[in-house]
Design a protein that fits this description.
Elements: E1 2-3, E2 16-19, E3 22-30, E4 35-39, E5 46-51, E6 57-63, E7 66-72, E8 96-99, E9 112-120, E10 129-134, E11 145-146
Antiparallel strand pairs: 1-4, 2-3, 2-11, 3-4, 5-6, 5-8, 6-7, 7-10, 8-9, 9-10
């Protein structure tokens, strides 16, 4: 996605891009008058995230040809929530996923990213497959905001 602001307006490579509902992606190219934003569901794009209820961390990754993303590399193996499960010990459909607060992160903490849409555990696999849907409708983006991150340091 190309936006109509560039380096003369303070937009630079690596800056996070958000819309009303949450994270859109990050600036991956910038000229003086425009910038290219790579969408968060793009293949090879990974976002450090945390689950809303457990605060367990993982990486939300885009997949080729799909708007849905996958939650990989969770810091703890968590089962899907059952009927009597405490939500702080498992993953539940509808749970929100936010950018995580880790040192030197590419994104500021606590930006809404996606919602859990499915949890599937196949026989013989250690981890469940957790599917995510981005909160922003990436097919219909009109306005975005580019965040200055990391914050400019005075000098």
């Amino acid at each position: 996605v190309v936006i109509n602001k560039g380096t003369t307006k303070g937009v630079d490579v690596g800056q996070p891009v958000v819309a009303g509902n949450g994270l859109v992606g990050k600036v991956t190219e910038a000229s003086s008058t425009q910038a290219t934003v790579t969408l968060l569901d793009s293949p090879g794009f990974g976002v450090g995230v945390r689950l809303e209820n457990t605060n367990e961390r993982g990486i939300a990754e885009g997949r080729t040809g799909e708007r849905e993303m996958r939650l990989n590399f969770l810091s703890k193996l968590l089962p899907a929530c059952g009927e009597n499960s405490s939500p702080d010990t498992c993953i539940s459909e509808g749970e929100l996923v936010f950018t995580s607060a880790v040192a030197n992160a590419a994104f500021p903490p606590d930006i809404p990213v996606a919602k859990v849409t499915g949890i599937e555990k196949k026989t013989g696999e250690l981890e469940s497959t957790v599917s995510l849907r981005p909160l922003v409708n990436l097919n219909d983006i009109t306005y975005v905001k580019v965040l200055r991150w990391p914050e400019p340091t005075g000098g």
